[in-house]
Amino acid sequence: MDANERRRLLRRRRLLVKRLAAVEEFVRGSVVLMKRKCVRARCRRCAEGEGHPTWVLTVSEAGKTRTVYLGEKRLAEARRLTANYRRASEWVEEIARVNLALLKAGAAETEEQSDGEGR
Ligand SMILES: [Zn+2]
């Protein structure tokens, strides 16, 4: 890795960290339309398997899935929060890739230096 590439990666990392630090509102999970069954004894919709479509947020945690009812009211906000989470995790992944590249380059440079010393 040459000095320019190293500088480019460091700049990229600084930008990503800055973006990441600005994201406060995020939630991990998926917004899905669930077909709920109601409590009415003779509901035609439930009998026909149609159910009652309801927006929920599902969050898996330690092998368990939690369901949070959203309704129309909180749908937009939940979508925004989950999209923020996806974006933030992409940035974390990219920072990790940059750091890996820097780590590998650092190891390579150390080898070059020790070669140069002629041991
Ligand atoms: Zn029903």
In short:
The protein is an alpha+beta fold and about 120 residues long. The protein has helices at about 5-20, 45, 70-115; strands at about 30-35, 50-60, 65-70.
Structure description:
The protein starts with a helix and ends with a helix. It contains three helices and three strands, in the order αβαββα. The longest helix has 46 residues, at 71-116. The radius of gyration is 24 Å and the shape is elongated. It has a three-stranded antiparallel sheet with strand order 1-2-3, with helices on one face. By secondary structure, the chain is α+β, with helices and mostly antiparallel strands. 58% of the residues lie in helices and 19% in strands. Strand 2 and strand 3 (64-69) form a beta hairpin. Residues 37-38, 40, 43, 45-46, 52 line the site of zinc ion (ZN).
Defining traits:
single chain, 119 residues, alpha+beta, three-stranded antiparallel beta sheet, elongated, binds zinc ion
